[in-house]
Structures
1.
Amino acid sequence: MDAKRIAAEKATAYIDHEMVVGLGTGSTAYWAIQKIGENVKRGLRIQAVATSIQSENLAKALGIPMLSMSMVDSIDLTIDGADEVDEAWNLIKGGGGALLREKIVASTSKNLFIVVDERKLVKKLGAFPLPVEIVTFAHEITQNKLRALGCIPVLRMKEQHPYLTDNGNYIVDCDFGSIDHPEELHQIINMIPGVVDNGLFIKMAAKVIVGYQDGTVIEM
Ligand code: DER
């Protein structure tokens, strides 16, 4: 079985009746949502919130009872993927363009379980360019301010147009190279006017579940 899938399905075993569950975004979270849909059909009584329109549509198609974020003040467990996980469990997320809603849902969750395959584990963050969500207004100026921090900012495109997030913003993929102090970088980036948030998730993960190509799965 696919390494991402075994990690995602392992995380769903922690979901109990009456929980409010946060549904992540991406190809790993996809398998968690599929498994949750199966379990709901078998009688699991939960309600869920989604971190993207894509995940919401998938969950609805599977019959998972959905809540809007305005209807919850706390989430019991969120299961989500990541682009990189370092040894302190700091994350780079946003490869799927959903970082803002993912971070809002994660920050509202009692527990955030990150599900990845082994390739996502790194000693230091940064091989994956850091996604930064910015408003469209004066985006060139915002990109210049990101560049001044020492990265190469690339506006994410979809076909010939800039990619638009579910929130109507742009994503700039910022190659900082190896990131020595992710916590400080996170704060510096978010001080730039025009930046909405960035893909550094600092000390938010309660558990990291790793799937391996040989079929094993490890909970860290
Ligand atoms: O966009 C995100 O943060 C996703 O969780 C993503 O980074 C992980 O994507 P994957 O599970 O498809 O590798």
2.
Amino acid sequence: NERTYIMVKPDGVQRGLVGNIIGRFEQRGFKLIALKLVHATPEHLEKHYADLKGKPFFPGLIQYMASGPVVAMVWQGLDAVKTGRSMLGATNPLASAPGTIRGDFALAVGRNICHGSDSVENAEKEIALWFPEGIVQYTHDQAKWIFE
Ligand code: GTP
Ligand code: MG
């Protein structure tokens, strides 16, 4: 069963969107397997966004992400990585469809509320980076109503 790393960014936390974002993943049928509020250090965030090092917006991105706590989560379910990305919407909220998280709540690419892993490989790396303590195991009783 596929897992993805989803994060509410500092602007999403400050704007009171944590419950709404968690609710969307719950309602869609995904299983919550990890969750915490963390104020990440710039060093930790530079590891998370290592692929973007060198981009002109990188320093601003790290400063934004370190400006307050984030909500770090792991969600599991069918095609979790791809479906998670489609629920977030396009990176630039001006291009995000209404009905997506960014399309409903954001306008600026540098304040786009949420993060979602872009591949299964990166999801596993991000889960290891944000949850080195490991992940709780439990049976999701709803699963029999969500899957054939
Ligand atoms: P994440 O889920 O946060 O990884 O976003 P993404 O995968 O949709 O986009 P990407 O990984 O390419 O960029 C990471 C983050 O950097 C974006 O979510 C934006 O917050 C920020 N970012 C990307 N491109 C730009 C840009 O052109 N300008 C600014 N200011 N920020 C950008
Ligand atoms: Mg990305």
